[in-house]
Amino acid sequence: MTSLAQQLQRLALPQSDASLLSRDEVASLLFDPKEAATIDRDTAFAIGCTGLEELLGIDPSFEQFEAPLFSQLAKTLERSVQTKAVNKQLDENISLFLIHLSPYFLLKPAQKCLEWLIHRFHIHLYNQDSLIACVLPYHETRIFVRVIQLLKINNSKHKWFWLLPVKQSGVPLAKGTLITHCYKDLGFMDFICSLVTKSVKVFAACPGSSAQLRVLLSFYASTIVSALVAAEDVSDNIVAKLFPYIQKGLKSSLPDYRAATYMIICQISVKVTMENTFVNSLASQIIKTLTKIPSLIKDGLGCLIVLLQRQKPDSLGKKPFPHLCNVPDLITILGGISEIYDISPLLRYMLPHLVVSIINHVTGGETEEMDGEIYRRHLEAILTNITLKNNLDHLLASILFEEYISYSSQEDSDSNKVSLLNEQFLPLIRLLESRYPRTLDIVLEEHLKEVTDLKKQELFHQFISLSTSGGKYQFLADSNTSLMLSLNHPLAPVRLLAINHLKNIMETSKESIDESFIKEAILTRLGDDSIDVVLSALSAFEIFKQHFSSEVTVVNLLNLFRRAEPSKNREWYKVLEIAAGVLIKEEILSENHHLANQVVTQLLPYMVVISDDKESAEMKIAVHLSKSGICSLHPLLRGWKEALENVFKSTKSGKLIGIANQKMIRLLADNINSGDPSSMLKMVEDLISVSEKEAYNLRQKVTFHVIMSVLVGCCSSLKGTHFPFAMRVFSLLQKKIKKLESVITAVEIPPEWHCELTLDRDIPVELWAHYIEQLNTGQMIAVEDSVLLVFALKNFIHAVKVPQCFPKDDRWWNPEQLKGDSRDCLHLLIELFETILAGTDAVHFRVLMNLSIKVHLEDVFQLFKFFSVLWTYGSSLSNPLNCSVKTVLQSQALYIGSTMLSSQKAKEKHQLVSASSPVVISLLINLGSPIKEVRRAAIQCLQALSGVQSQFQLIIDHLVPKAEEITSDATYVVQDLATLFEELQREKKVKSHQKLFETLKHLLNCVYNCPSYIAKDLMKVLEHVNSEVVLSHLLPMVEKLLEKVQKEPTAVLKDEAIVLYLILGKYNEYSASLLHKDPVSLDIFMKAVHTTKELGPGMPTIQIAALEKITKPFFAAISDEKVQQKLLGMMFDLLVDCKNTHCAQTVCSVFKGISVNAEQVRIELEPPDKAKSLGTIQQT
After folding, report:
1. Smallest Cα–Cα separation from 99: which of 29, 30, 198?
2. Is the pLDDT of residue 260 over 90?
C-alpha cells in the first residue's frame, strides 16, 4: 500500500468501511459473523434490552442509558447521517456507558448490551478507545480476544496495531506483553492512567462505588508497578507522566485508588533518584493526606518511610510536621511497623522537629493551632515503645543538648522559661538514659571539649543536672577537669584523687551519679597499673559491694590474683589479702558450686608452696589463704590449713617445697575420692581446664604439675578406676607429652632414677626442689618438665586397673561387645601403649613399657589378645572404641609381636597358635592388607610360629615359604588360598582332603565368634575360596544377620553389613548345587531377596545384592529345574508386586543375563486353569 493510500485510509470515516455495506458477514461479539448477518435489528434490539434489564437488577445507575441508547428512538438512529453535535453526544453517552459497563464485562448481560451497541452504533469502528478501555482489565480472557477481533487495526500506523497478534492468533494478551508496551509507549501508559481518573470521576457520583472500581484499580496498580519494575531505566518522562496521576491518587478518598498510588510511589522511589524539591513535595502531600482515609494510615506511613529511605532528602521542612503529629495513634502504628521494618528515615525527620517544637511550645515561640503537649507525648512514646537504631539515639541526645544550650545561651532567655524547659526535658533525658545508658555519656564527652568559658560550663552543668549521671561530669577543684576525665587521667595521682572523690560521693550521696557509671569506674580502676589506685578502688568496691552480682565480684577479684606479682612488688600482698577477704565473705559461694570451683581453681596456684623462705611474699600469701576460710568453704581443700601447719612444724628447711606439695597432692586426691561424685567430677573438669592453659611463670608451671599429680592420683580408688575420668586425665597428659615429644625422648634420666620409675609412689621430694630451683634460675625448663611428665605417666600406669568385668577369658577381646568400663579400659590401654611406644628410643620409656605390660598384661595370652586388637582394629568401620589405630602403630605392634612370639616357649607357642587363640586369624587377615609393611611384619610373625602343631599348621606352613610373594602383592594371599582349597572341589578324593577340610572348617568357624570387622577381613581373604562346604558352613551366619536386619536394622554395624554381602557372594556356580541338596540354603537366599532394608548410605539393599548373585553361570549350575522355577517365580512376583524401580531394573538385568527355556516361562505366565463350560444338557 502506498503512502498516499495509507494517509487516505487514516482520514476515511468509519461509515465508509466496506464491512458496513456487506450483508454476508456482520461484526458481532456473541455470534459468528455469518450467523450475525441473519439477525435483524429487532432481534438485536431485544437482546440489548434484555441485557440492560438484567443489569438494572444489579446496578440501578444503568437507568440513565435507557433513553439515549436502548430506546425506540435509538433503534432507528443512523449515526452516519446525524450532525456532528448529535454524534458527539452519542459518543459521550457510549463512553459513559462503557465505563459503567466495565466492572460487569464478564457477565452475559453486559455482553448482550455490547452486542446491541456493536450492531446498531458500530462502536467497534466509531468508539474503539472507549471499547478497549472497557475490556482492557480482562486482557487475559477469551472474550477480550473476541472484542479485539472486531477491530480494524491492520494498518501499522494504527494506535492499536500492537494488538494485531492477539487478533490474528486468538490467544489472550499476555501480562508481560502488556507491561512491556506500557513502559515503552508512554501514550498507552497515559491511556491507562486517564482511564482510571475518568472512571473514578464517573463513579464518584454513585454512592458505594468502590466495589465497581476494584477490578480497574487492581489492573492499574499491577500494570503500572510491574512496568516500573520491568523497565531497565525509568526515565524522567515516565515520572513526569505519572506525577499528575499520583497527585490525583493522593487526593482521592477511594481506598483502593490511594493504595494503588502508594504502591506506585514506592516503586518509583526504588527505581529512580529524584530531586529533593520533588521528593519534598511528594512527601509533604503524603503527610497532609494521611488522615483522609483512616484505614490506610499505616500503608501511607509505610510509603513515606520507603520514600525517605530510598531518596534521603536533606529536609522535608517544618510545614508538613504538624500534620504528621496530628495523625491518630501515630507512634503506636510506627511501633508496629518498626518491629518488622526499619523506620529510621522517618524518625530522623521527626526527632529534631519534636525537640524544637517542645522548646517552641514551652518558650512561646512559633505556635501551631494544636495541642503543644502532643510533641512531648510523641517523643516520650517513641523513647518508650520504639528502639532507636542507626545512631538515632545519638542524634536525639545531640539535639537535646544542642537545642538546650542554644536557647539557654541566648541573652534574652527568660529564667522562668528555662525552668519550664528543665521540667519538660528532665523526664525525657532520664527516659533516654534508661533506654540507652551509654548514649548521653558519649554525646556529653564529645561536647565537653567545646566547654571553655565559665558561662558554657554553667550551662553544661545545668544540662547534666537533668540526667541521672550528672555527677560524673562535675569539675574537680584539684584537677580542673571532670570526674570522668580524672578517672581516666594519664597521671596516677589524678586517678587516685578521682577514685577517692568517687568514694566520698558514695558515702555521702551528695551528687546524682548513675549506678552503672560508679560500677564501671570501680571495675576499670581495679585493673589500674598503680597499686595505690588498685587499693583505693578495692576499698570503693567494698563500699559498693552490694551493687555487684556475685559473678562480677568473683571474676574481677580473681583477675587481681591473675595479674599480681608479689615477688616484684610486696604491696601486692596487701591487695591480695583484701581481695581474698572479700571473696571468702561472698555468701553465694556456699550455694553456687560453679563459682566456688572457679574461686578454688584460681586461688590454688597461690596456695601451692614455691619457696622455702617462710618470710617471702609467696609463702605469706599461701599461709594467709590457708587460714582465710577458703579451706572450710570448699571440700577439695578440707584439712589443708592443718596439713600446712604440720608441714611447717615437722619439716626442715630445704625440703619444705617437696614435702608441702606432696602433702597437698595426697590431700586433694583423697578429698576428691571421698567427696560427692557428681560435684567432685565437676571440680575435676575445672582443674583439667586450668591445666590445659599454657603455663608461663613459675607459679603456673608448679601448679600444673601439682594438679596433674592430683588428677593422676584420684583416677583410682579402693573401688577401682573411674574410667571416664581417667580417659579425660590421660588425654591431658598425652597432649602435654606430645608437645614436649622431642625433649622427653631425648632427655637422659639418670640410671639411679630408673628404679624409682618402677615403684608405685609419689614424685620424689628432691625432684620437686630441683624443679623449682631450675625454674628460678631459668635453665633447661623443658627438660625438667619432661622428667616430671615421665613420673606422672608412671603414676598413671599404676593408677589404671583393669576392671573386674573385663572378659579376660574370652577368645577375642571384642570391642563391639565391650560395654562401659571394659570398653574404656581397652581404649585407654591402646592410647597408653601408643604413647609409650612413641618414645621407646629412650631408656626410660622402655622401662615404662615393661612396667605397663607387667601391670596390665602380665599374662602372655592376655598380651596377645591385646596385640590382636592392635593388629586388626584399624579396619573397623564402626569404631566402637572411638579411637584410632593407625598403620604405624599396627606395624610396630606386629614387629613387637614377632619378637615376643620368637621368645616364647614351645608350650606357650602351641597355645597361641591353637584355634582358641586369636593370633593366627589376626595375622592371616593382615597378609591381605594393602600396606606392604603390615604384610611383611605379619608374615614375620607367622614365621615365628612355623612348624608348631595346631589346627592351622597346614595353612601356616603353606604360606610361610611364600613370604616374598605375599609381601610384594596384596592380592597374592587371596589367590593362593583359593588355589590351596581348590582341591576340595575335585571329585577325586585324596588323602590331603581331610586335613584341608578340617583347616577350612576351623577358619570358617572363626566368623561366628570374632568381631565383625575381623569376619569381614577374613571373608575378603577367603573371597575366592568357593564350594558347597563354604556356603553350608556360612548359612547360619547369613540367617543370623538377616534376622538382625529385620528386627533391628539400625543396630546392624557397617562391618556386619559388608560381611553379609560377602557371604551372599558365596552363592555362585561352585555352590549352586547346594540349593536343591539343602532346601534351607534356598530359603535363606529367597529371604535375602525379600529383605528390602538399606543398611547405610552408598550401600545397595540386601535385595539388590542378592539378586545380582543370580548370574548366568549360577543359574545354569542349578541342576534341579524345580529350584530354577522357584527362582523364576520369585523374580516374576517381584516384577508384579515391587514398587521400587531399582529392584525392577535389577530383575530385568538378571533376566537378560540368564538362559531360560520357553517351558519355564510358559509355566509362570500361563493363567490358572479355568473350569471348562459344559455345552449340553447331558454334560450337566
Report:
1. 198
2. yes
Residue with more model confidence, 205 or 137: 137
Joined grid coordinates for residue 395: 542524634
Residues forming beta bridges with residue 717, ordered by sequence position? 720
- 368, burial (CB in 10 Å: exposed 0-12, middle 13-18, buried 19+): middle
H or E element: which one contains 803? none
Rounded Cα distance between 171 and 151, Å, is 15
Average pLDDT over residues 23-36: 84
Decide: residue 973, CB within 10 A, 0-12 exposed, 13-18 middle, 19+ buried. Answer: buried
Residues 6+ apart with CB under 8 A from 293: 253, 255, 258, 300
Residue 9's pLDDT band, with cuts at 50, 70 and 90, is very low
Going by the DSSP 8-state scheme, the letter that residue 209 receives in this structure is -
Per this entry, what is the length of the chain?
1180
| CB 264, CB 224: distance < 8 Å | yes
**Non-local CB neighbours of 651 within 8 Å, separated by 6+ positions:** 659, 660
Rounded Cα–Cα distance for residues 164 and 1041 (Å): 74
pLDDT of residue 365: 62
Which residues, 6+ apart, have CB-to-CB distance to 302 below 8 Å? 262, 266, 337, 341
Are 346 and 301 in contact, with CB atoms under 8 Å apart? yes
At residue 603's C-alpha, the angle toward residues 602 and 605, to 5°, is 90
Report the distance separating Cα 112 and Cα 122, nearest Å.
14
Q: Measured between alpha carbons, how far is 210 from 1111 in angstroms, rounded to an integer?
A: 78
The residue that leads in pLDDT, 352 or 501, is 352
| Most confidently modeled range among 206-215, 456-465, 673-682, 975-984 | 975-984
CA gap 791, 241 in Å, rounded: 91
Q: Which amino acid is at 660?
A: A
Range list of H helices, 372-514: 373-385, 392-408, 415-435, 439-448, 454-464, 483-487, 492-508
Non-local (6+) Cβ contacts of 551 within 8 A are 595
HEC assignment per residue over 184-212: HCHHHHHHHHHHHHHHHHHHHCCCCCHHH
State residue 352 phi and psi, 5-degree precision: -60, -40
CA dihedral 815, 820, 822, 824 (to 10 degrees): 80
pLDDT at 1 over 50: no
Cα–Cα dist 544/549, whole Å: 11
Q: One-letter amino acid identity for 511? A: E
Q: What is the pLDDT of residue 1174?
A: 44
Q: Where are the alpha helices (DSSP H) in 141-254?
A: 142-148, 164-169, 175-184, 186-204, 210-230, 236-251
Query: Where is average pLDDT lowest: 566-575, 999-1008, 1068-1077?
Result: 566-575
Pick the residue with more confidence: 82 or 471?
A: 82
Phi, psi of 927 (to 5 degrees): -70, -20
Is pLDDT at 104 greater than 80 in this prediction? yes
Residue 1171 confidence (pLDDT) above 50? no
What is the model's pLDDT at position 1179?
40
Whether residue 454 is predicted with pLDDT greater than 80 in this model: the reply is: no
717 membership: H or E segment, kind and range: strand 716-717
User: How is the chain split into domains, by residue range?
Assistant: 22-154, 174-268, 273-391, 469-530, 549-799, 810-817+858-1024
The band of 433, judged by pLDDT with boundaries at 50, 70 and 90, is confident
**Burial of 613: CB neighbours in 10 Å, binned 0-12, 13-18, 19+:** exposed
Distance CA 526, CA 521 (A): 9
Nearby residues of 558 by Cβ (< 8 Å), 6 or more positions away: 583, 598, 599, 602, 603
- Residues with Cβ within 8 Å of 1169's Cβ and at least 6 positions away in sequence, in order, are none
Quote the DSSP letter at residue 1078. Answer: -
The owner of cell 584355634 is 915
Question: Tens of pLDDT along 480-495?
Answer: 566 666 677 777 787 7
Q: Bridge-partner residues for 482, per DSSP? A: 475
Task: Cell 612444724: give the residue.
Answer: 649
